[in-house]
Amino acid sequence: MKVEKITLRHIKMPMKAPFSTSFGTVDEKELLLIEAKDESGITGWGETVAFVAPWYTEETLKTTWHMLKDFLIPILLNKEIGHPDEVTTLFASIRRNCMAKASIEGAIWDIYSQQTKQSLARALGGQKTCIEVGVSVGIQATIAQLIEVIKSHLEKGYKRVKVKIKPGYDVEVVRAIRAELPNLPLMVDANSAYTLNDIAILQQLDDYNLLMIEQPLAPDDIVDHATLQKNIKTPICLDESITSYEDARKAIELGSCGVINIKIGRVGGLTEAKRIHDLCKENQIPVWCGGMLEAGIGRAHNIALTSLSHFVLPGDTAGSSHYWYEDIINPEVIVKDGYIDVPQEIGIGYTPNMAVIDKLTISKEVYQ
Ligand code: OSB
Ligand code: MG
């Protein structure tokens, strides 16, 4: 394939509820949609996951735009591409900027799956026909409110619940949830809010039968996480710290984690995500698919990835209606009894809803 035309749209979506972590709150989501058209007229879609501010990783909506416009799009336009894996090689001279790379690489995978007349899930090697999903609950104003929110999600069938923690909002929160919901599959995510000085607090969490504790320490650390893992029983799940296959290999070698959360944007694309999945499978490190409050295109890519066999734990890809009044795809992503059906149609299996996309578009640029 040769990509002849790329349209970038900057869209802004109102969220049903603000989402708060230890470092940031998102109350409306801004993102870039990448629409790439090849010489035969096939169109593939991608979505950026970077937030407006760099609180999760260093990338922002504007840095992804800059990278796409000034580096990544010029590299790809009119280049003959045999397989999406080649995109990673074409981008090898560009350091990091994983979310920018992943957004356009996802559009190439979409084109490739249509060109080869298979679902994106199948093109990636995924076999599952449905995936198990959990839900991530942001920091709430009170513990009582948090428990209410959790219960409402359980009624909808979600298979596990993740709650955000930060210093001062941790052991007490988990104790209160456990008192009400002793058998709930529960985990916590700190988004790097702790240091090794907090070992005593993190050890207290061992008493509450948590599935895992996600990213307790610094986003660029795997050494202190290895020390922490030796001192706590609960498995550590790395999120921010894993930005590549190499990061994952080293973290596994050091014993920095028992679980890895794979996010397509954080690791630079589906090809790298699949390599990390395969590595974890060989090393018996369970993986699950993380979320970045994606709109429909990103959500569709997550679902396809999660169809790979070693995504053995429920992910954070909740249904469209959990986040959005109106998603940008047709049909929307539906969760039934805690499961999402993996589309079997050619491509991502959802159609971009142009009426909604046009309504949400702030600006648009075409490159050809
Ligand atoms: O750390 O997994 C995270 C949302 C934004 C940024 C980082 C994270 C999250 C979530 C929510 O936990 C995942 C989702 O529902 O998409
Ligand atoms: Mg996380």
UniProtKB/TrEMBL annotation:
Its EC number is 4.2.1.113. It catalyses: (1R,6R)-6-hydroxy-2-succinyl-cyclohexa-2,4-diene-1-carboxylate = 2-succinylbenzoate + H2O. The active site is at 164 (proton donor), 263 (proton acceptor). Signal peptide: none annotated. It comes from the Bacteria. GO terms for molecular function: O-succinylbenzoate synthase activity. Mg(2+) binds at residues 189, 214, 239. Pathway: Quinol/quinone metabolism; menaquinone biosynthesis; Quinol/quinone metabolism; 1,4-dihydroxy-2-naphthoate biosynthesis; 1,4-dihydroxy-2-naphthoate from chorismate: step 4/7. The keyword Nucleus does not apply. The keyword tRNA-binding does not apply. Residues 143-235 form the Mandelate racemase/muconate lactonizing enzyme C-terminal domain. Keywords: Lyase, Magnesium, Menaquinone biosynthesis, Metal-binding. Its cofactor is a divalent metal cation. SMART domains: MR_MLE (SM00922). InterPro entries: Enolase-like_C_sf, Enolase-like_N, Enolase_C-like, Mandelate_racemase_C, Mandelate_racemase_N_dom, MenC, OSBS/NAAAR. NCBIfam families: menC_lowGC_arch (TIGR01928). Converts 2-succinyl-6-hydroxy-2,4-cyclohexadiene-1-carboxylate (SHCHC) to 2-succinylbenzoate (OSB). PANTHER family: O-SUCCINYLBENZOATE SYNTHASE (PTHR48073:SF5), O-SUCCINYLBENZOATE SYNTHASE-RELATED (PTHR48073). Belongs to the mandelate racemase/muconate lactonizing enzyme family. MenC type 2 subfamily. This is o-succinylbenzoate synthase. It comes from Lysinibacillus pinottii.
